[in-house]
Predict the 3D structure of the following.
Amino acid sequence: MVKEFEGLNLWAIILGGSSGLGLAAAKKLAAQGLNICLLHRSGRAEMDIIRKSFEEISATGATLITFNLDVIKEENRIKVLEDLKTSIGPGRIRCLLHSIAKGNLKPMLDEEMPGLASQDFLLTLQHMALSLSDWTKAIHDAGLFAADARVIAFTSEGSTKAWKHYAAISAAKAALEAITRSIALEYAPYGIRANCIQAGVTDTASLQKIPGSELLKEHSIKRNPFKRLTLPEDVANAVYLLCKDEAAWINGTVIPVDGGEHIS
């Protein structure tokens, strides 16, 4: 099989790549010859399963470097980029993929538990939105981006729609889209393109944490023209397409990858 990026010493940094959409994208990009730097925050109980996934990525022949740490801490960001600079030598970052799914799912009002507070919004925004700006700037300042680089972030319909228990994440997704547009504008002179992928409802661990997720899945299947949920692999394919040379003129947009779910 011809690998798109084989032998080019190009890399993808994936923020939040130990499961779901980020992991599927890591596998797809590695299969096409991109080396992978994968950041995640995982406990000991999860690591046995995660290691098997990492072995699958390495089996493609791509180089895999992983860091288990909190991506929003500045000292961690500095450490990762210093280590990466040493590891990849003349290699450069073709893709920065933001797939962080750490958000607060408290209701705004509840008689039995405290509702969302400002701190809940702030922590969610830090992880799911502001971190994209921080990492983009840090990689740029370190001189690690390729001459033609892609910044890609995952958003959802919840950025424009109200779902119960989703207020903090909804705010973060709206901010993420705004930040992506600004990156697309202000980093364009440096060869960086930035886009959001709006994935359809996908049966991931993150979705399963949302109260009422089973009803959400049923509704999505009914409204989807293909009568199925979006798969992580569907989204990973779109990430790969955006990393190709032919996608260089796609910039500053939100691309639905949902089989047409959003049209009905």
About this structure: The helical segments are 20-31, 44-58, 74-88, 118-141, 167-186, 205-208, 213-223, 232-243. The chain has eight helices and seven strands. The chain has one domain: 10-258. The CA atoms of residues 79 and 256 lie 34 Å apart.
